[in-house]
Design goal:
The complex is a heterodimer of chains A (about 325) and B (about 260).
Chain A lengths: L1 E6 L2 E2 L2 E2 L2 H16 L1 E8 L3 H8 L6 E5 L8 H15 L3 E5 L4 H12 L2 E12 L2 E8 L4 E6 L6 E5 L16 E3 L9 E7 L14 E5 L7 H13 L2 E4 L1 H5 L21 E5 L5 H4 L7 E6 L12 E4 L2 H11 L2
Parallel strand pairs in A: 1-4, 1-6, 4-5, 5-11, 6-10, 7-10, 13-14, 13-15, 15-16, 16-17
Antiparallel strand pairs in A: 2-3, 7-8, 8-9
Helix pairs in contact in A: 3-4, 5-8
Chain B lengths: L1 E5 L2 E5 L17 E5 L1 H17 L4 E7 L5 H10 L3 E5 L9 H15 L3 E5 L10 H9 L3 E11 L4 E7 L5 E7 L2 E5 L11 H9 L2 E2 L3 H4 L3 H5 L5 E6 L7 E2 L4 H19 L1
Parallel strand pairs in B: 1-4, 1-6, 4-5, 5-11, 6-10, 7-10
Antiparallel strand pairs in B: 2-3, 7-8, 8-9
Helix pairs in contact in B: 2-5, 3-4
The chains are: A alpha/beta (about 325), B alpha/beta (about 260).
The structure holds flavin-adenine dinucleotide and adenosine monophosphate (AMP).
Flavin-adenine dinucleotide sits at the interface of chains A and B.
């Protein structure tokens, strides 16, 4: 019987929820692959994480102790390679997260495995694994297969599968020793995000968010004023922060804040990159304004306007005096 | 000492793009081409290291791409890269990212830099795999998603900050030579000056063939890690579109916002 290997993600002793989404992905194809589902926890503190991963359908938990507790890419890659050598899995699932993209390509390159990143859907056709991912800034989609590859390594896009929730139990917990590798980089500590300086966008119910489509810095001031008159809080996408137009505390997305309490999100000139959507796609009502009718943001919006942001904002100012 | 920056020409689809006849990719006639946004930051970081470090640092921009990708190397030269390298072979038509990584690794072996910088990802497909794969193929240390960097040639190491989820960052120390994937926002990329553009015309772009890199088409082809079965335009949920002149759109939007907000009160 072959195996599907899920590599759990954890940071500072806490399981990252995306791991549970990978379990769902594994369970969805395990019958067709006639495979066992094994979850590996690489690194220190693994014992504490086993209860959360004792899920229905999981056949075995593999603890892989490493010399250091913090994530270290060479160490994670070596452990992944050792796991593949020991278990010969057909499929290896790793989150498409910052840490995931830091070691998954190394495993695939070193082992000569099949590889696809940022995959949002998986299926089997006969003995083939077929992975779906986006292309051209989400405007197209592509299906990939992996001819001639015994093992296929896949990084899974967060949010693509519902988290596995049904508790299981009684599966064996095996500790696997992996050979040490020389480590050429060392973790020197975390740096916490700056505390909310001016505003807490994750608390706001109504956000007006600006993206690169606003064109120029002066527009941030204009939209800020408009947002104020509308009773909304100003937020933004990453390029606006990178350009120094607004502080980091206003950024929505994977590396910024999540619009946890937002019910209405007006997106002005934002394309809808997956890392931005990560912070707002669950919002109840998204209204998107973009001059590109194919912009990805429209696929998460309830209402859409194909328009020039500057012109629209000028009109709105008169309507919110 | 040398710093190599991997740069990618990315394709942006026009509004009326079409699929290629074989259904495996878009028709490239419907695209415009640009330097990958992330690579602009990686190049800038290399140029800054050179400027801080004094005289004997050479910045090389390298791309795996056809003739049309020369334009992106010229942009890099115009901003201040000393030299360009472009590698192409017919076996790379419809190549996957792993094949690109193998070719880029071969370029790095030949150039023998003290540091390789790539972008975190290509803006077109967001694969986010090349830099880390290249490092693994070279057997070099690496770090991904770097948003602050202090490189010390003398110490043979770098101190870097990796950007994690939710604004959290991690500080690391890494031995060099290493491959670092650079995140947007690490610096503010410069524009090419007019003088730079003129000077760039005189700077060399080397196009070594596979033999000169010590690789062959068969080996690169066998590095393929995935194959495209088909590419298609997905049926996406469409929002209700608010049409009309901008004035009409604004009026309807304002009413809609008041309506949604009003319901909550
Ligand atoms: C690890 C990682 C983490 C990231 N984290 C985040 C994050 O937390 N948050 C985030 O936002 N991004 C994040 N990104 C970046 C993300 O990939 C995108 O680059 C970014 O979201 C793009 O921002 P944008 O939509 O404003 O710009 P663009 O993608 O450039 O889009 C601009 C849009 O404006 C439209 N437009 C242009 N002009 C006009 C006009 N006059 N009128 C109307 N529309 C116009 C265009 O059609 C386009 O759709 C991250 C990336 C990585 C790799
Ligand atoms: N064809 C290429 N030639 C040179 N560098 C590339 C190429 N493709 C990708 N890269 C580098 O790898 C980074 C990540 O791209 P990707 O892995 O394709 O998302 C880019 O920002 C480039 O620095």
């Amino acid at each position: 019987m072959s195996a599907i290997l899920v590599i759990a993600e954890h940071r500072r002793g806490v399981l990252r929820p995306v791991t549970l989404e990978l379990v769902t992905a594994a369970l969805a194809v395990r019958e067709e692959l006639r495979a066992r589902v094994e979850i590996a926890i690489i690194g220190g503190g693994a014992d504490a994480l086993t209860p959360a991963l004792s899920l229905e359908g999981v056949d075995e938990l593999l603890l892989v102790p490493t010399p250091i507790d913090a994530f270290q890419p060479e160490c994670h890659a070596a452990a992944g390679e050792a796991l593949i050598a020991a278990r010969r899995p057909r499929l290896v699932l790793i989150p498409h997260s910052v840490d995931g993209i830091s070691y998954a390509p190394a495993i695939a390159a070193t082992g000569g495995h099949g590889y696809a990143s940022d995959v949002s859907a998986l299926r089997c056709e006969g003995a083939d694994i077929v992975a779906t991912r986006s292309a051209y800034r989400e405007k197209a989609r592509v299906e990939l297969d992996f001819p001639g590859r015994q093992t296929v390594v896949i990084t899974v896009r967060p949010g693509s599968f519902l988290p596995a929730t049904r508790a299981g139990g009684g599966m064996p917990v095996t500790t696997l020793a992996v050979p040490g590798v020389p480590l050429n980089s060392e973790h020197c500590g975390f740096i916490e995000p700056e505390p909310e300086a001016d505003v807490d966008v994750s608390a706001a119910e109504f956000l007006v968010a600006v993206g690169r489509g606003i064109g120029e810095q002066a527009m941030t001031g204009e939209v800020a004023q408009l947002a104020g008159r509308m009773g909304a809080t100003l937020a933004c996408s990453r390029p606006i922060v990178d350009a120094g137009w607004l502080p980091k505390s206003r950024q929505i997305g994977q590396s910024g804040r999540t619009a946890t309490n937002c019910r209405l999100y007006l997106a002005l000139g934002i394309s809808g990159a997956v890392q931005h959507l990560a912070g707002m796609k669950h919002v109840e009502t998204v209204i998107a304004v973009n001059r590109d009718p194919d912009a990805a943001i429209f696929s998460v919006a309830r209402f859409g306007l194909v328009a020039d942001v500057a012109e629209l904002v000028a009109e709105l100012r008169a309507l919110f005096p | 000492m040398r710093i190599l920056v991997g740069v990618k020409q990315v394709l942006n689809l026009d509004e009326e793009f079409e699929m290629r006849g074989d259904g495996l990719d878009v028709d490239q006639d419907y695209c415009d081409r640009a330097l990958n946004e992330w690579d602009d930051y990686a190049l800038e970081e290399a140029l800054r290291i050179r400027e801080r470090g004094g005289g004997d640092i050479e910045v090389v921009a390298a791309t795996v791409g056809g003739e049309e990708a020369t334009a992106e190397l010229r942009k890099c030269l115009a901003k201040g890269a000393d030299r360009g390298v472009r590698v192409w072979d017919d076996c790379l038509r419809d190549c996957d990212g792993m094949m690109v990584a193998h070719v880029l690794a071969a370029i790095v072996r030949r150039e023998d830099p003290a540091l390789v910088l790539t972008g975190v990802q290509g803006a077109d497909h967001g694969q986010a795999q090349t830099g880390v794969a290249v490092a693994a193929l070279l057997g070099w240390p690496w770090a991904a998603v770097v948003r602050a960097l202090e490189f010390s040639a003398d110490a043979g190491e770098a101190i870097a900050r990796r950007e994690l989820e939710g604004g959290l960052e991690e500080c690391i120390r890494i031995r060099c030579p290493a491959v670092l994937t650079i995140q947007v926002g690490i610096n503010t990329p410069r524009y090419a000056s007019l003088r730079g553009v003129t000077q760039a015309a005189g700077r060399p772009v080397d196009t070594p063939a596979f033999e000169r890199l010590g690789i062959d088409a068969a080996a690169i082809a066998s590095a393929r890690a995935s194959r495209v079965r088909r590419m298609y335009v997905p049926q996406k949920p469409r929002p209700r579109m608010i049409e009309g002149s901008v004035r009409e759109q604004a009026a309807e939007l304002a009413a809609l916002i008041r309506d949604i907000r009003g319901d909550r009160r």
